[in-house]
Amino acid sequence: MAPGSTILLLILLFLSIPAAPALGDPGPLEDVVIDRYYIPKICLREVQMGDFIRYHYNGTFKDGKKFDSSYDRGATVAGVVGVGRLITGMDRGLQGMCVNERRHLIVPPHLGYGSIGVAGLIPPDATLYFDVVMLDIWNKNDKLQITTLSKPEHCNRTVENSDFVRYHYNGTLLDGTPFDSSYSKDSTYDTYVGTGWLIKGMDQGLLGMCAGEKRSIIIPPFLAYGEKGYGTVIPPQASLVFSVLLVDFHNPKDGVFLEHLEVPESCKRTAVTGDFVRYHYNGTLMDGTLFDSSYSRNHTYNTYIGKGYIIPGMDQGLQGVCVGERRRVVVPPHLAYGENGAGNKIPGSAVLIFDVHIIDFHNPADPVEIETVYRPEGCNVTTRDRDFVRYHYNCSLLDGTKLFSSHDYEKPQEVTLGTNKVIEGLNSGLLNMCAGERRVLIIPPHLGHGESGARGVPGSAVLRFEVELISMEEGVPEGYLFIWHGDPPANLYEQMDLNKDGEIPADEFSTFIKTQVAEGKGRLMPSSDPEKVIADMFQNQDRNQDGKITSEELKLKSDEDQEKIHEEL
Q1: Buried-most residue among 144, 268, 346, 473 (CB within 10 A)?
Q2: What is the pLDDT of residue 36?
């Protein structure tokens, strides 16, 4: 309470004491008698001369007979204090009141309706008793009162005119009477700011807010609904109090906003339209509400970018990412799910925030990427298809997740190149290598395990191989198990029939082939099990499977191929 108001009330009370030992029998009064029988704990403002006020009252005579009541009319009284529009006693008795304060006032006749009274209502020289509750106080010089209740630590942007805002609010009159709440509707209030869609006070009160900020906004009537009020819930000349939580906002001209949270030091390539990207994400609203997460499904989100498979904002927001990058993508609703939202988790006109971690990406036209880490000097002999190679490898995803390693086993990996025994990209990466050479291979999924993946390998994953070629053996053409280094013997069957008994059993056949290999006259298909290769050769020649080869059965592979050509012709 202002010091002047306190002194005034003390003087009024002091003047009333000698003439009025009790409220019930005041006797002749010189001034208004004021009984402040309820004073609110918080009083932000007191009535002063020239203020506009709204109040309820009951008016009675000394005997308790009622002569007037605003309650009976179902409408508060609104007026200006101290300008002669009220009886003098009320002008004096209302000064210094707080909102929600209650007073008993005793107004002597000369400060009321005097010796004339009011015909048919108030007799001459009547002392008037008023029970008053103050509901609202404002002044034509008032401005919007804004109090920030809470504000996020980080605020990159604040509301400006023409922005579209989504906010929750509780609306009350100055005395605390609620008149509306977005919470009761379980939906935010969504509108443009500064375009006349809101009352002037809210248009002004929302400016400069951050997403997640809470404000109390007190709006005088001339910036609210003025003399007319609004329906049955907002009386004329009512000050309004809004408790506002700004959920999110955007401007129709907004594009995608990017925040680079973590960018790898080495980024040889960035994603472009047409690339296939695998990434993890958390999707939240601007107030932090989580609406979706790939982590919760323990599976990356996999898609092409720039082709319309995802919302336009993400199509744009993933352009230029590096493998391993962490990026925040803020997408306005016109580049997301628009006014309709999506499902029951994304409201209409919602701004979406995606915190993205790029696992890998590739293009369907990508070849195997080969980086030679070490190549021995004097490297003259390199691997070709059909060669038998031994190599060590470490296989991982591009995010460093280890998948497989030959070092976990007792010996290197062995394979004949070009026989579809390893994925196509690894086969390509092992070609033209020298023994002792080391390479890093980046293998796109269409040359790896494809969309389906494999045991331990996610679908559409780009693979990283560190390979070291341990040894290599020259191979034989496709379909051959053994080749001659020169022309085969003219009398091959006789030479192969070591004991000259007219038939060649398995042991005799094996001895002959091994001798040819030892003397450098021919070579077997490289294998970790030469005995099996020889056994396969014998089985191919033993056409009736009787355990021995006859002269009619023995044929060179080249002769067989020639016979097939003739048959086809």
Answers
A1: 346
A2: 97
